[in-house]
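Quarterly update, task 2.4: pyridoxal-5'-phosphate-bound model.
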Amino acid sequence: MGIHETHHLTPVINAAGTFTPLGVSRSAPAVARAVAEALSEFFVVDELHDVAGAAIARWSGAEAGAVTHCVAAGITLAVAAAMVGGAPERVAAFPDIAGGPDRVVLPAGHAVDYGHPILQDLRLAGAVPVLAGTDGRCTIADLEDRLDAPGTACLLLVSSRLVRGEPVDLAEAVAAVHRRGLPAIIDGAAQDLRVRALLATGADLVLVSAQKYLAAPTAGLVIGKREWVAAVRAHEKGIGRAMKPSKEAICGVLAAIEEREALDQSAWRTRQEDKVARFVARMTRLPGVAAAAIADPAGMPFPRARLTLDPDRAGMDAAALAGALRAGTPTIRVMEHALGEGHIVLELVPLHDEEIESIVARVAAVLSER
Ligand SMILES: *Cc1c(COP(=O)(O)O)cnc(C)c1O
């Protein structure tokens, strides 16, 4: 009997992407084996951290890497490092900062809500979030204006499809904060496939989720300059105690990095494109449905499928179809951010062929009942 039957849990077909409330991702068998093995072993945990840091650096091309409980934890710890550094007495006293810098500047459109407000991750470190520009637009001059006020600790940028407004040039923003001798942190939680591009902006720390496209157990990867990664690790002996990665998560991260390094990325990309193209071709045959492959707005290297409903011909609108898919068994979950404009967006990356077949069959059945 599977875990769902044993505990009477709802079976899920997740076409909503790396969505935390649905269990985020599917790990490869080698990752699951590494986690299972780690659970029944002892380790010198510092050694495990060092090995993982070296693997993260090798994979990303950065100077150094570290593992935290998750990216939310990584943001709090990176901000702590920017505020007080990593000296043991300052780490032990934190969040008492003895009058040190506590302002964290970010473009207003980067104050995202990824299930909770990112600003809360800053406040958890005792930092004061300072928004630059407006939701629609933040220029480098807007950022510089905020960075120049006394008590500024660092700049935080977010690379995500959740970001609002005109894009901020990340490399220019990083250069602006570096001119002031302060560090730049980029939250690229779901952007592990673009980690090298994010590091190329010159950011001191780039944070990515191990459990999103890398498909490891839940963990945050802190990647970047040696001195700043060391300062984040120093906070393991401070507030980071509440944000530590488990031994099994670190071992899972090691296995997931090996899987990624062995992956033929261009073949993978072609598979994703084919999968979406086949799905789109079948959906287009349904009455009142226009289907298309669409690119990720934040530059991730795979397409998603978008269904646009013509309510007159389909007999229902996008929200009603999403609701019907959700209500069935297994529950089928789609991306719902564009329902208001009449679109359902589906991410097919982790889905098996049979699951995609189930989606096609269910959509056809729901529309034919109308
Ligand atoms: C998922 C996500 C996070 C949080 O990552 P966790 O590892 O779940 O803490 C932070 N920022 C963005 C933009 C995200 O998409």
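Highlight for this quarter: The longest strand covers residues 152-158.
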